[in-house]
Design brief:
About 50% of the residues lie in helices and about 10% in strands. By secondary structure, the protein is α/β, with parallel strands linked by helices. It folds into two domains: about 40-275, Alpha/Beta hydrolase fold, catalytic domain (Rossmann fold, 3-Layer(aba) Sandwich); about 320-420 and about 445-590, no CATH class. A hairpin with a 2-residue loop joins strand 9 (about 450) and strand 10 (about 455). The protein is elongated and about 85 Å long.
Length: about 600
């Protein structure tokens, strides 16, 4: 009885610590995004003439009123983006006194898919809404966009003729309609989608189309053609070391955008472009993501201790049948090398099977998320082989291991305990529901999500929920195998102190889960940055590694969370089901759904 009281007390303490950290990071994240209340962030939902639901994020400085309208900036994201991508831009413009509206394009974020990618239904709906707002000065507007969103920017600018537009890392310009205001073209020198000479020629052609005289044979970067006084200033800026996806996380890119916009439109609160705080916000967002996952795991453990229905989930830890010596070294080496093999082969063809730009399997429609899913499946197919070999040549031979030794059933049972699995599923769904209710309250009250550099956690949009379910099921199945590999096959010797054993296991498994992918992402981006737009780096492999920027964080969360749950419950199921759902949502929530 005393042991149980001590356990409950410890779990409550850990839970309260996790809750406190998450609340503090929610507050700091909100403070950085909004200038501690100087900007109000709201989610705008609208229904178009086609009956589809569309969504956008609006950032409104306190100073913007009907009596004192402020200049505004529209933001259109790229092919695999969402409205929150532009938060690094939006908070910087809001600090300078701009009202900002960032649109969820077709199928992205909370918006529904209205036909083909690049369809203008959502941008046109929100642009028309924005220019009519009484607290927005419609005579002083800037339009901006990245990648596919830059093409949308040109089309919207031709229709609405704002004072200026900023075109970031645009592909082939899809409109021949002219825009006669100030125009900035920004391109990363390491953008493999836009070779420098090609982008320069595209920009030059647009300058001519817009009526700006260009005498140079090739555009000179950072030279102003036309003039701000005449309202037709046109300029090309090239950013050293920036890949295509780096427009939102490049100090130089954001500075160029801010300075050009402020020369075009008098900012109510002018600040030099180098005065930026978005990186601090992104780091707090990253910590917020980690704190949210920590909170979910701590909540699961405290519910197991506090609610009788869940208490049977807490079993004694199985025997330690983990490998030792060279066998353990081989297993660890395999864990580091398997991601390389999967990325090189396109997850043995699974990336092509599921498709990304146009998903091939009807139930997996979250586009680029399919790259991560294919990688997870391939990794765990290799893990399945390793577990089979481990069982045959180590577990069975040395320990005569049964399924209890693998954490697959309850103490004293020699076959699967279905009620145990069912309770683990109920626990996971309950915890995830509570967690996402917290995110919904955070979004409603503060207007912010836990977001960092293209990915993060946010409330589940009800019009999208059904599309996430197949991904959650796949991740859960994969995480069962991953949990066995981490906590049974590679379980380390005990130090004699359970709390220290748990800490070591969490750290080691978290790092092993993410090391291989992290190294490959760093190598890909480093080579691409070093060679510039001529680089293929690892892009000729079977996997587009640049689309896996958030996977290292997700895999660390999955590995660490799984391990902690296993050490606290003695069972594979609670951690595998909970973290499988959490990591699937981490991968899917910011993806673009095509259906």
């Amino acid at each position: 009885m005393k042991v149980m009281k001590k356990s409950v007390s410890t779990s409550k303490k850990v839970f309260l610590i996790s809750l406190t950290i998450m609340l503090l990071l929610s507050l700091v994240n909100w403070g950085l995004v909004t200038g501690w209340g100087d900007t109000r962030v709201t989610r705008i939902n609208m229904v178009g003439d086609d009956g589809m639901q569309y969504s956008a994020l609006m950032y409104v400085p306190k100073a913007a009123t009907n009596e004192n309208p402020l200049p505004g900036i529209m933001m259109y994201h790229g092919n695999s983006g969402n409205a929150r991508n532009h938060e690094s831009w939006a908070l910087e413009f809001a600090r300078r006194g701009f009202v900002c509206l960032s649109v969820d394009n077709n199928g992205a974020g909370n918006g529904e898919y209205s036909g083909k990618i690049g369809n203008l239904a959502s941008p046109d709906l929100f642009t028309n809404y924005f220019v009519e707002l009484p607290f927005v000065d419609a005579e002083h507007l800037v339009f901006s966009g990245h990648s596919m969103g830059a093409d949308i920017t040109l089309q919207m600018a031709a229709d609405y003729q704002p004072v200026a537009c900023v075109i970031s890392d645009c592909g082939p310009f899809g409109t021949e309609d002219p825009f006669y205001g100030n125009t900035l073209y920004i391109n990363g020198k390491a953008d493999k989608l836009n070779p420098i000479d090609v982008y320069r020629q595209r920009a030059k052609d647009r300058f001519t189309l817009n009526g700006v005289e260009v005498e140079d044979e090739a555009l000179v970067p950072d030279k102003v053609y036309g003039s701000f006084e005449e309202g037709n200033a046109s300029m090309l800026t090239e950013i050293d070391g920036q890949i295509h996806e780096g427009a939102f996380v490049s100090h130089e890119h954001i500075a160029a955008l801010l300075n050009f916009a402020q020369k075009s439109v008098q900012a109510p609160n002018p600040l030099d472009g180098d005065d930026q705080i978005w990186f601090m916000k992104d780091m707090v967002g990253l910590l917020g993501m980690l704190s949210f996952a920590f909170f979910l795991v701590a909540l699961a453990v405290v519910l197991i201790d506090a609610i009788p229905f869940f208490q049977s989930l807490k079993q004694p830890l199985p025997r330690n049948i983990g490998m030792r010596g060279k066998d353990l070294a081989i297993s660890i080496t395999a864990a580091l090398l398997f991601p390389v093999l999967c990325l090189f082969t396109g997850s043995f063809g699974l990336v092509d099977l599921f498709g990304t730009k146009a998903p091939n399997v009807p139930i997996f429609q979250v586009r680029y998320t399919n790259i991560a899913m294919a990688t997870v499946i391939a990794l765990n197919l290799l893990g399945l082989v390793m577990v089979f070999v481990f069982h045959k040549v180590w577990g069975k031979k040395k320990f005569n291991a049964g399924i209890r030794d693998y954490g697959l059933t309850s103490e004293g049972s020699s076959k699967l305990d279905r009620p145990l699995i069912g309770k683990a599923a109920v626990l996971a769904v309950s915890v995830v529901t509570i967690g996402w209710l917290y995110l919904a309250v955070q979004g409603g009250l503060l207007g912010t999500d836990f977001y960092c550099m293209f990915f993060g956690y946010k409330p589940i949009s009800t019009n999208k929920f059904g599309y996430y379910i197949p991904y959650m099921l796949v991740w859960v199945v994969c995480f069962v195998m991953a949990t066995i590999g981490m906590n049974v096959e590679r379980r380390l010797p005990s130090t004699g102190k359970e709390s220290l054993d748990t800490l070591i296991a969490v750290v080691v498994n978290g790092l092993l889960a993410t090391a291989g992918i992290t190294i490959m992402v760093i190598v890909e981006n480093s080579i691409q940055i070093g060679l510039g737009t001529s680089a293929t780096a690892l892009a000729n492999w079977g996997t587009d590694i640049t689309r896996l920027w958030g996977m290292p964080v997700g895999m660390f969360i999955g590995g660490a969370g799984n391990t902690y749950m296993y050490r606290k419950t003695g069972s594979i199921w609670p951690g595998a089901i909970l973290m499988g759902i959490v990591c699937a949502l981490n991968s899917c929530l910011y993806g673009q759904i095509q259906f």
